[in-house]
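User: I'll paste a sequence; please echo it back and then give the predicted structure.

Assistant: Echoing your sequence first, then the prediction.
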Amino acid sequence: SGKVYIRGPLKNIGIYTKSYVENVSFGIDMLNTRYSFSDSIFLSPKLASFKNVKIKDREGNIAIANGAITHDFYKDFKLDINVTTDKIICMDIPVTADALFSGIAYGSGKVRISGDENDVLIDVDVKTSDKTKAVISFLSDTEIEEMNFINFKNPRKSRKETFETPKKSKRFNLMDEVSKSSVTVNLNVEATPNAELILITDPSTGDEIKAIGSGAIRSVITDKGEIELFGKYTIEKGSYKFIYPNLLRRDFNIVPDGTI
């Protein structure tokens, strides 16, 4: 959305026309982000290109975009866009009872958007900035029948790490409607101690782990509601709130060097 002001004729095939776009806005629905810009671009009947365009998020943080959108007289669009930033909102998903992945995330780094109108690939390579708070929620047992992911160990006896995987799980659907085009987000995040990670282990009781730490995390998100999460997160400090309904609540401090 927005306005476009054009200087010069567009009818001359192959000749670029410098145009000014005002208050153009766009976003990534899966991450609930919205951006806007007003700047000059170059147009031709088969190409729209731009250089060093300043893109702003809702707080006024700035990213710089360069790239081109090719098309065949406004059909068969192809994207090749590169964005760099020192700090911008990368995710802004409200925390709700049924949200698997939510919170607000600020990052510095680069983004590349490529592909055509039927298959869009968004590669994100960022480092977390301050005020980041990401929430991952494990849904109720109607969605996951059993998940033994918390193991109590005595660190003096063994430093060997053990992992248990879900015995059975169902696919999470993040969207009620799937767009006609396919969108995939490859998210590579360097987590730093200026960001907080919250794991809601049982939404029905309020059990949760709050952690501050560091690590390399990779996620693949599609517009069909599929999420894959990889990596290792080392905790510097944190807390674990354990609640047994109507009977018991215990608050634990997490010592350094634990991993998720």
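The two ends are 41 Å apart (CA to CA). The chain has no helices and 16 strands.
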